[in-house]
Amino acid sequence: MSAVSAALNSRRAVGALPWLAGMILAVGVVVFALTFFRNTSNVAPIDRAPGPPVRSVDQRTVPLAPTITQLARRFLHAAVGGENPTVAYRISGPSIRQGMTLAQWKHDWATVGVPIVPFPIDKVAASPFRTDLSHQKEAVLEVALVPKKGSGVASQVFFIGFGKFGKRWLVTYWGPHSPIPSHDAR
Question: Where are the domains of the chain?
Fold first, then answer.
C-alpha cells in the first residue's frame, strides 16, 4: 500500500471526508446564491428611463475659423507676453477670468493672481500652431514657442483652447503641454 492510499484509508481521514464534502457543498450553495440572486434591482431599459431623453451634442469636425489663429496671436502678445492686461481680459473667456472684474484683473496683473502662464514672447523666433480639434463652438490648438538662438529660454509647447460665446470666439484655456517623463529622464 502506498503512503497516499494509507493516509486516505486511515480512521481520521475517513471521519473527515463527510465534513470536507459538507464544507464544499456549503461554499457551492453560497457561490450559487450570490451569482444568481445578487442583482435584484429593477433596471429599466435605457429607452424607457424616466426623464427627458438625453440628446448628444453635435461634435462634427469643421474647418478652423481663420479668426482663431488671429485671436491666438493677440492672446500670445497681450496676455502671455504681458503687454496689455485690458486686451487680455477682453479676449479671455470666463474660465480664464475666473469671475474677476477688469479692475481686479488689472490689480492682479503684476502678481500671480491672473491665471495665465507667462512666456517671454519678445524672445520667440517662431510660434507654429497645430490644430488638435475644431468643432462648431470649440477649438484647441497646440502652439510651439521656439525661442531665438542665444536667448537662454527653452522651447515650450502650450495648449490654447477657444470657445464660441454668441458670435465671438474667446480664449478658454492656456496651459503648458506636460509630456510624461521617460525613465531615461531621471
Answer: 3-37, 66-183
